[in-house]
Design brief:
Layout (H helix, E strand, L loop, with lengths): L1 E3 L15 E8 L6 E3 L5 E5 H22 L51 E2 L5 H12 L7 H11 L8 E2 L8 E2 L5 H11 L20 H6 L1 H4 L5 H13 L5 H15 L9 H13 L7 H14 L7 H14 L13 H15 L3 H11 L4 H23 L8 E3 L17 E3 H18 L4 E2 L5 E5 L6 H7 L8 E8 L5
Parallel strand pairs: 5-8
Antiparallel strand pairs: 1-2, 2-12, 3-4, 4-11, 6-7, 8-9, 10-11
Helix pairs in contact: 1-13, 1-14, 1-15, 2-15, 7-8, 8-9, 10-11, 10-12, 11-12, 12-13, 12-14, 13-14
Length: about 500
């Protein structure tokens, strides 16, 4: 299935009615994960193949997270942190972050791997997604309620008062650390005081609602609703609105849509074309004239008009001048954790990475600001698209750890591996997510299983709606183009 966006920068989605209507076009061709059922009403996806892809997601996300963490907040555009990193800094010494510290796991800017026998440590770029996966499985539900989210946060995430003592370095003074920052931290406090989402992200309650936090915590909801961004955005609404509103929430939607549609890409195309196609579609979910929509257009245009597709630094410097210094497109820079500046940085690594997981993570590590976020996001998405073996081959590694230590940062999870308290592995994580998708397919998508239970049969959104969509999308090209509507139930993002 080749996916083509019918959105131009001037045709972005808006929310003018109680429901948001978005029109997309699909052209049927070769399909990898998904195959088209003969009657045309369903998309068929292998459950076992999808589980392997989910393991690739977790592997790629952890490689990206811990590689990007090396340079997190090293370069944030302030005089004391300039100049920015360039390609020439790869393999060189890691400089301290703007708060004056390095990282304990690496002194050199390079790809970071954990070997078998040593688990990947949980971090805020992965651990709340892990928690949401656990909660969905624990409650045997397709969609978490506000109270389930609140109770989950209070049970599994330390407060500032009850967090264990933590030493970043062997010489550090032990301090209590709950591994929450900015909007996540404020939301946890509000929940402790009895508040639930979406109130926890309202500006009057949470002054950090425009920070990057929701990106870190919600991408996985896209993968839990394969081929169906309408369902993905529905089940992610409250998790997004736990910590984000407006720009930061729309940006999170962008990533979720890309993850949801990642199972529909044309495997005969290059990963560069696949990822660009996904991004173009997802950009249509950014409200017209919003700051994120303008950022997307600016970064994409700058990339397309740059004759040297290896010179990503040129676009990064343009982003810095236009947004951090220039305050353009309705954006006023506040902190290096801002969702908008990091959205721009993330797009740079996506476009110039051209679907290459190695190059994408490398650029994301060097680009600046909150660097472990784009690396974790794209590492996860491309890891899903590549699968485990594809990730190993891309990094020219024969074996990388497939275990995960959630109790490094979070608490009260069941032990999956007896030898280590709080340890899990990517296979069991993927299996839990498959069980959740099973429920989502039946309960929310009104789909079914194949006779041998090896495949999901997921109803397409075009069913009984083709003419309406054609009416809405006059100009949708070609007789093979099937147009469908996506009705989003929450328009107060």
């Amino acid at each position: 299935m080749t996916i083509k966006s019918i959105f131009s920068p001037q045709m972005k989605s808006t929310c003018l009615l109680p429901s948001l209507t978005i029109v997309l076009c699909l052209t049927i061709s070769h399909v990898s994960l998904a195959t088209i059922v003969k009657d045309g009403d369903f998309t068929k996806i292998s459950r076992s193949y999808y589980a392997e892809k989910l393991q690739g997601f977790w592997l790629g996300q952890n490689i990206g997270n811990w590689t990007g963490l090396i340079t997190e907040m090293d370069k944030v555009g302030t005089p004391e942190t300039l100049p920015f990193y360039t390609d020439s800094d790869w393999g060189e010494e890691d400089l301290p972050a703007f708060w004056g510290e390095g990282v304990p796991h690496a002194q050199t800017i390079d790809f970071y791997f954990e070997r078998p026998g040593t688990p990947w440590g949980s971090d805020d770029d992965t651990d709340i997604e892990y928690m949401y996966g656990h909660l969905l499985d624990f409650h045997k539900t397709s969609k978490l309620s506000a109270e389930q989210i609140r109770q989950g946060w209070l049970k599994h995430i330390y407060s500032e008062d009850d967090a264990p003592l933590f030493k970043k370095f062997s010489t550090s003074v032990p301090q209590r650390e709950n591994f929450l920052w900015v909007s996540n931290e404020q939301a946890r406090k509000l929940m402790m005081w009895g508040m639930k989402p979406p109130e926890t992200s309202e500006p009057k309650n949470n002054s950090k609602h425009m920070m990057i936090d929701a990106q870190l915590t919600t991408e996985i909801f896209g993968l839990l609703a394969p081929t169906r961004p309408d369902i993905a955005l529905d089940i992610s609404y409250l998790p997004i609105r736990t910590v984000a509103k407006n720009d930061s929430a729309w940006i999170s939607q962008f990533y979720i849509v890309m993850h949801s549609l990642a199972s529909t890409t044309d495997a005969s195309q290059s990963f560069a074309l696949q990822t660009q196609s996904l991004a173009n579609i997802a950009s249509g979910f950014l409200p017209k004239d919003s700051t994120p929509a303008k950022i997307y257009t600016f970064v994409l245009d700058h990339y397309l008009n740059n004759p040297d597709k290896e010179n990503w630094e040129l676009t990064r410097d343009a982003v810095y001048k236009r947004y951090q210094l220039g305050r353009n497109d309705g954006y006023i820079y506040s902190e290096p954790f801002d969702a908008n500046i990091n959205f721009a940085a993330s797009l740079i690594s996506l476009f110039y990475g051209q679907g290459d997981i190695v190059e994408t993570i490398k650029i994301g590590t060097l680009v600046g600001w909150d660097s472990d976020n784009p690396t974790a996001t794209w590492g996860g998405l491309l890891g899903f698209m590549y699968g485990v073996e594809g990730v190993l081959n891309a990094f020219k590694q024969s074996d990388i750890s497939d275990t995960y230590w959630i109790h490094r940062t979070r608490r009260n999870f069941p032990d999956k591996i007896p030898s280590m308290h709080g340890e899990d592995n990517f296979l069991s994580m993927a299996q839990r997510e498959i069980r959740t998708i099973d429920r989502i397919v039946i309960e929310l998508m009104e789909g079914r299983f194949s006779q041998d239970d090896n495949y999901w049969l997921i109803p397409k959104l075009i069913k009984n709606r083709i003419q309406t969509c054609l009416d809405l999308s006059s100009g949708c090209p070609g007789t093979q183009c099937l147009c469908f509507c996506i009705f989003l139930y929450k328009c107060d993002f």
